[in-house]
């Protein structure tokens, strides 16, 4: 009876949140294949214009890595009608902000302006697509910028290469095996023609989605979109290669020495399914259960109560084709990384053996409900989510329906998914060590 009451309570809560957070949008295609999504929100006099391109580091050649991330920088260099070095000046002088980011699967650009500057934003993004200037000056400049970023964010940052090392061992065939920032040697030896060819192949209107979100007048916005994006020539359809990985059936053991650290870290990583699968969402639940917040199982046990770990965590990094489920810990005092792994495995076995409690289950529902609300609490978040769900998930309606998935996940399903993916013979065990230190027994 108690469980039934909790389920009913959750259903009622879901109804209220889903109604309050429903995101209205309109979508259509231009003749050149560009998909357009409009979300009207007049609550604040701002508007975001964003374009997400279906190109990431996984679309690169193995001997020419780093191109997708390089273009995130290169396409701010200027266009035929925006002089080199003027992009950021134009944005800031008109009260706006802009940025871009790259993942293994996509590249995303956006501007946030006062709503009376929407036409300017649309023109600038169309310029990036229609008239980019890709010359040797820009390539040389951004090559130096990328090297500095790699040095500060990866090479000289404590624990900065963990994800890269994990990817190298979890993937042997899929392009996820290399880092998003890529190889500096590949970028150094790339020709100007290589960069121009990459732009021609991937930066086309039919390989992108345009999102306008915020305070705007629909009729005029559509006219501007047609005026600036409509004339852009359609590109060749990008043929996505399919890469598959054989299942991991025995533990992979690896060691990496980081000269920037003094405390060793244990990493247990599992290859998991695409973010488009239901199992990926369940793995998000398991991550939150284990290490999200001070009351989570691993944190409370190992950091708070037993004080065996300085830091402990579980994260599910889901991507378009595969994901990585990563557990990690830093030992405290006389405790070893082997001690931490033993305690981590004990908690995983509990999830695989017993149902999580009703209290913990309700806590997870509350956490993901709050996350859903926060992700859609401003036009910037809504714009990116609309683009992401359309381009990567193939289901734009997830922006309103994903919360229903959260509430349909059961305690039994959490146990089943843990049994399916989080087994010792399916993982990488990485000893991430200070220079010259040997793995702890």
From TrEMBL:
Similarity field: Belongs to the peptidase M16 family.
GO biological process: proteolysis
A GO molecular function held by the record: metallopeptidase activity
Domain Peptidase M16 N-terminal residues, every copy: 36-174
PANTHER family reported in the protein's UniProt record: NARDILYSIN (PTHR43690), NON-CATALYTIC MEMBER OF PEPTIDASE SUBFAMILY M16B-RELATED (PTHR43690:SF35)
Keyword Signal: yes
Organism this protein belongs to: Flavobacterium muglaense
Protein name from the UniProt record: Insulinase family protein
Assigned keywords, A-Z: Hydrolase, Metalloprotease, Protease, Signal, Zinc
